[in-house]
Hints:
This protein is an alpha+beta fold and 157 residues long. It has helices spanning 15-32, 42-45, 91-105, 122-130, and strands spanning 5-9, 50-57, 60-71, 74-82, 110-116, 134-136, 148-154. The termini are far apart.
Amino acid sequence: MTVALDIVKADPRDAVFREPLARHVAAADDQVGPEFNFALEADALAAPGIEFWAAWQGGQLAGFIALKHLNPREGEVKSMRVLDPFLGQGIGQRLLDQVISASRRAGHEAVWLETGRLDSYAAARHLYRRAGFVETGPFGDYPDAEASLFMRLDLIG
C-alpha cells in the first residue's frame, strides 16, 4: 500500500523545519563552501515573493521546496530537499512539479535554478534535466562560479 503524499504551503520558520533547513544549508556549506552556498535559511525563505511548500508522508516531513518570484515573468527554484528516509520515492519530482505549476499560475515564462556540479548533486541534475531544464549561464546576482550549474525551464513556446 502506498502512503499518500501531501504537499502544502508552509511557513519555513515553523519549528519542524528548523533542523532540516539547518542540515540543508550545512550540507551545501560542506560540499561547495559557504562562499558558493546559495541555499536560503528559514527567515530568507519566509520573505515576501517566496512561496514555500512542505511534503508530508504518513505524518512525517518528507521534503520541502520554495519558489522565488524573481519578477513577473520569471521564478527560481530554491532550497529543494528530500529528506534521506524518503529518497527514491518520486518525492523530488512531485515537489518540482509543484513549483513548475505555481510558476505557470503566476504567469512566469521561465523558471531558473542554481545547483551544484559535484557528483553529490548528480541525482538533482538528472531530475531537473528530466523535467526539461537546460543548462545556461549565471542569472540574477549569481557569480559565474565553478561549483555552480545554472539551468532554465521555458514555460512558453
